Amino acid sequence: MKKKRSIVETVFVNLVSFLVFLIILGLTNVVAITINNPLLTRIVFFLNSCVFLIFVLSVIILISKLFDLISFPFNLPVPLFNAAAGITFVIFLFKIFNLLGDMFGSGFTWVENLNIALTYFWVSIIIIFMGYARLLSEARRARCPPIERIEKKGKEVKWSDVGNEARGILYDILTNIRSLVRPRRKKK
């Protein structure tokens, strides 16, 4: 089982990751201006136009990670945030496919024929289902001790004990029915 990070460490790592992305994007902007290559300029312009989308994606993932650090009943929103992140990522992928289609011709026309709303729906349903399956599985594993640690308590049960127990239950049931059927005798 992997060690969970602290909340501060998670926020710090995600913030530093996004800042490193922005620094690399800034350096790429400088290189694109100096080299003056149309292909590189188009890719850098595309990344510049998607900075807000990438920022939203990183914030959604950060919120999901923060909820995932909390114990079971309070981490139930994790699959919902993961589904939102999945939809945002699919939007980004569609933008990449459109860019590639514009740059290299009509090889990516299948993206235009795809029902985008249906794709968002299925991506979110699959992510939510898998997320809740993971959460419930982890919660179950956390509450159930491993098989090796379960110790047998008391004596071993035999079939004759089960038979005696069943006979006792049957006797109690019949006694209760008999007392309901027979009227009580009045004391004189």
Helix amount, in percent? over 70%
Sheet with most strands: none
Radius of gyration: 32 Å
Number of domains: 1
**What average pLDDT do the residues reach?**
78
Overall number of strands: 0
Q: Low-confidence segments, ≥5 residues, pLDDT <50? A: none
Please tally the helical runs, counting DSSP H or I stretches of 4 or more residues: 7
Question: SSE order, as H and E?
Answer: HHHHHHH
Distance between the termini: 76 Å
Mind explaining what this structure looks like?
The protein has one domain. 75% of the residues lie in helices and 0% in strands. It has helices at 7-35, 38-49, 51-68, 78-104, 110-113, 116-143, 159-181. The radius of gyration is 32 Å and the shape is elongated. The N and C termini lie far apart (76 Å).
Question: What descriptive keywords fit this protein?
Answer:
188 residues; mainly alpha; elongated
